[in-house]
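Quick one:
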Amino acid sequence: MLDAYISAWQRAFDYSGRSNRGAYWWFFLANLIVAFALALLAQVVSQLAALSNLYAIATIVLLVLPSIPG
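Output:
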């Protein structure tokens, strides 16, 4: 799971290949866990709210940008 998560962030803007279905879903699960943990920490420590928001924006860009034709 950790390998798929790291690989997805390293290859975020590499459009020359494709990931397999397993790598996508492992990334999705790891991303969900990280986002949930950051949101929970942001509720406890208010200074982490900006980090949680930044992570959410980066994830949205990572998931939406490849689907934009161009």
